[in-house]
Design a protein that fits this description.
By secondary structure, this protein is an alpha+beta fold. 50% of the residues lie in helices and 9% in strands.
């Protein structure tokens, strides 16, 4: 049997990896996933794929790509150019790009960092990360007032980039009860064909 051309290096509990896996599945692409633990990421072999030692990394034949948002853009353009996952229209494209920037900024330093602190840190709440997360969720709640998805009236890579760490914010001590539109948006993403959940973890403290 011929191995898939696409390989995703990552871990099951990484939201950065999960967003890529979601798009791969939603595009119905054949791929294999290789576990890249911290020990693997320290090896010379992995550092040849990504000198920064970060996940995810995606290979597609001879192509090697790092950075989850860059991978989302590549997959949408390469395998679904007319699907709407990454719009061509300038205003819509700009909206998607803004959310990708938010995913790399406020989402990363808010709910993602709060989750890391409770799951793999010292077990204490990161109050600064929680404040960032709450401001972000207030902003997302407002953005979802007129649209069913973040950047358009249909799902885009912006939704996948922002989904995983938002859905798992309670693992960082951030309950999602105050944001009903946000919770409804999560449900819409979860209803998309090909959706698979990221495994949930139990924080060290409530």
């Amino acid at each position: 049997m011929t191995a898939p051309a696409i390989t995703l290096y990552g871990t099951a509990l990484s939201g950065h990896c999960h967003r890529v896996a979601l798009l791969l599945r939603m595009l119905d692409l054949d791929y294999r996933q290789v576990d890249a633990s911290a020990a693997v990421r320290a090896t010379p072999e992995f550092r040849r794929l990504n000198p920064f030692g970060q996940i995810p990394v995606l290979t597609d034949g001879e192509l090697v790509l790092a950075d989850s948002n860059a991978i989302l853009v590549y997959l949408a353009r390469r395998y679904a150019p007319a699907s709407g996952w990454l719009p061509d229209e300038p205003e819509s494209a700009a909206r998607v790009q803004r959310w990708l920037s938010i995913a790399a900024g406020e989402l990363r330093y808010g709910p993602a960092t709060a989750r890391v602190a409770l799951l793999w840190g010292n077990g204490e709440r990161d109050e600064n990360a929680i404040r960032i997360a709450r401001r972000l969720f207030d902003f997302m709640e407002g953005a979802l007032a007129d649209e069913g998805f973040l950047a358009a009236g249909h799902p885009t890579v912006a939704d996948l980039a922002c989904y995983s760490y938002t859905a798992h914010a309670p693992e960082g001590g951030i309950a999602l009860d105050p944001w009903p539109r946000l919770r409804a948006w999560l449900a819409r993403v979860e209803a998309l064909p090909g959706f698979v959940p990221m495994p949930r973890s139990q924080p060290k403290v409530a």
